[in-house]
Specification:
Layout: E1 2-7, H1 11-20, E2 27-30, E3 47-48, H2 59-77, E4 82-83, E5 87-91, H3 94-110, E6 115-119, H4 120-126, E7 136-140, E8 144-146, H5 148-161, E9 165-167, E10 172-177, E11 182-186, E12 190-198, H6 204-211, E13 221-228, E14 239-242, E15 252-255, E16 261-264, E17 268-269, H7 279-289, E18 301-309, E19 318-321, E20 328-332, H8 338-355, H9 380-389, E21 396-398, E22 403-404, H10 405-412, H11 421-428, H12 441-452
Parallel strand pairs: 1-2, 1-12, 2-9, 5-14, 12-20
Antiparallel strand pairs: 3-8, 4-8, 5-7, 6-7, 10-11, 11-12, 13-16, 13-17, 13-18, 15-16, 19-20, 21-22
Helix pairs in contact: 1-5, 1-8, 2-8
């Protein structure tokens, strides 16, 4: 019997698991995929927003501002790549000027610190490559960039180290409410618990309807991106936005914490988790971005990708106990600024449990730190000392990112080890560089085969079914 069943191991579910792991509770985190952060969390703009955009008095405003402050603290103590680079919202005409001034005042009302309005000369002094057509900008100094999948992994790993049970490859198929508990049936088993916290992202409405009545609808929105090589990484030093519209914050141009440049997204209706990219969508992103930063060299593109956001039929976040099912708490419709708001949303789930009379006794020996080796960031002396202790750190596997075998072995020993080539990439950046795994994927696969005792036919690129090798003599069956 579990005290709490969390459904969904994206950034929100991982945040909930992290905060609940502080207490003497029996908690299980169910995830349909074979890894944490494998949905919307791994495919977004990677921005920790300052909080000037959401309308005053909304849940988005409250949790964006508090969540961004918490994110800075969490990333520091859990060793997650994070950089407070600041953001600019550009204005090009009189209408934009009104919007910029409105966002400035809204940000002040929301409690955002470090806001300034810049004139053209100030903008171009800070960002010389911005379009000369710019007239005004809002500068938000507390805006930051992060590695979103590492952020979620860090939270989930810490939760697991503190006793939360993580059940991957467990897609929820049915929920039955008894008098006092829930029976949650997945494709791998049945889990009984007193409370459910629904963090299922694109599928949150389905989880709600499995347990009770239809209370909201998720309407997926796909956004497409360019990821450019590090040669373009210094094209701008801030995250550059245009004035927002009804469909979102618009196409941005931003550095990433790994030194690349990201450009996107557009916004279009999607069918569930369709993350395909299109020529039309990418052409729109390229054209729109040039209004802000005209000279981005898209020939340096190393990857295109798309993420799907969990918009709902409501204008605000859904953060409430189900109206038709007692003891089920929905955290749903978490569109942007969901990445920023996640830890604050999780704290609301903790408060909800307290309000239900759940006794939350803090653990005496809660583990609240995390470190991992980043070989290329070490000094020469530190590298030599590490190699003396473990020679695997002297073997470079990914040349683009200078990722060593030792770092991959370390990832395989962590509380949530990778089970795929992309799982390794998300943990230590092997394959994240210019060649996108063209040289190192085979070597990563060799390590996975050796360390996990796998047949080559069972090596996955990412999710279940993404086998990199198939035996067509057996009808394409990989299970040989």
């Amino acid at each position: 019997m579990y005290d709490v069943i969390i459904i969904g191991a994206g950034i929100v579910g991982s945040s909930v698991a992290y905060y609940l792991s502080r207490y003497d509770l029996k908690v299980v985190l169910l995830e349909k995929d074979n890894d944490v952060s494998n949905g919307t969390t791994k495919a977004n703009s990677a921005i920790i927003h300052a909080g000037y955009d959401p309308e005053e008095g909304t849940l988005m405003a409250k949790h964006n501002v508090r969540g961004s402050r918490l994110a800075k603290q969490l990333c520091e103590k859990l060793d997650v790549p994070y950089k407070q680079c600041g953001a600019m919202v550009l204005g090009f005409d009189e209408e934009d000027e009104k919007t910029v001034r409105m966002l400035y005042q809204r940000g002040l009302n929301n409690g955002v610190e470090g806001l300034e309005i810049l004139n053209k000369e100030q903008i171009l002094e800070k960002e010389p490559q911005i379009s000369s057509e710019v007239r005004i900008a809002l500068l938000a100094k507390t805006s930051a960039i992060v590695s979103p999948w590492e952020y979620a992994l860090a939270l989930a790993e810490t939760a697991v180290r503190n006793g939360v049970e993580l059940k991957l490859n467990n897609e929820v198929k049915a929920i039955k409410k008894t008098d006092e508990t829930f029976l949650v049936t997945t494709d791998k088993g049945i889990y009984e618990g007193k409370y459910i916290i629904n963090c299922a992202g694109l599928y949150a409405d389905r989880i709600q309807e499995m347990a009770g009545e239809k209370e909201f609808e998720i309407r997926p929105s796909r956004g497409q991106y360019y990821l450019l090589d590090k040669a373009e990484g210094k094209r701008c030093t801030h995250t550059i936005f245009q004035c927002p519209s009804k469909v979102g914050k618009g196409v941005l141009v931003s550095p990433t914490v790994h030194g690349n440049l990201i450009v996107g997204p557009n916004a279009e209706e999607s069918e569930n988790d369709d993350t395909s990219t299109t020529m039309g969508g990418l052409a729109f992103v390229k054209a729109a971005s040039r209004k802000s930063v005209p000279n981005v060299d898209f020939r340096e593109n190393i990857r295109n990708f798309a993420g799907v956001r969990a918009r709902s039929d409501r204008s605000d976040f859904i953060l409430e106990e189900s109206r038709s099912v007692k003891n089920l708490f929905n955290i749903a419709g978490i569109k942007s600024p969901g990445l920023s708001a996640a830890p604050s949303l999780a704290l609301e789930a903790v408060e909800w449990l307290k309000g239900k009379g759940v006794v939350l006794t803090e653990k005496e020996h809660f583990i609240d730190e995390r470190k991992r080796v980043r070989f290329k960031e070490l000094s020469g002396e530190e590298k030599q000392e590490l190699i003396r202790k473990e020679p695997a750190y002297g073997r470079v596997i990914c040349r683009c990112e200078t990722i060593t075998e030792g770092e991959i072995l370390d990832a395989l020993k962590r509380p949530i080890p990778p089970v795929s080539i992309d799982g390794v990439k998300r943990r230590c950046n092997a394959g994240m560089g210019r060649c996108q795994g063209g040289f190192c994927s085979e070597r990563v696969a060799d390590i996975l085969m050796r360390e996990l005792h796998l047949n080559g036919l069972n090596i996955l690129q990412d999710k279940e079914g993404s086998n990199v090798l198939l035996d067509y003599s057996k009808g394409g069956n990989s299970n040989v």
